[in-house]
Amino acid sequence: MWRNTCAALVPVTLMSLKKDGTLEVRGYVGLALFGKTVVWTRIE
Q: Which of 13, 21, 36, 39 has its C-alpha lying 20 to 30 A from 28's C-alpha?
């Protein structure tokens, strides 16, 4: 069985902390166009 590791889809996660204290997490596999962004807010 041959496996092409260059063509494998790799999951990507990008995180950014905003000035208002929220955390924005973006995840996608392959194209960023088909990803999803979730905003996390700290509960006090």
A: 21
Angstrom CA distances, 39 to 1, 29, 35, 42, 44, stand at 41, 19, 14, 10, 16
Q: 2-40: buried (b, 16+ CB within 10 Å) or exposed (e) per residue?
A: eeeeeeeeeeeeeeeeeeeeeeeeeebeeeeeeeeeeee
For residue 16, being part of any structural domain is answered with yes
pLDDT in tens, the chain (44 residues): 455 556 667 788 899 999 999 999 999 888 888 899 999 998 87
Residue 25 lies in a domain: yes
On whether residue 17 sits in a domain, the answer given is yes
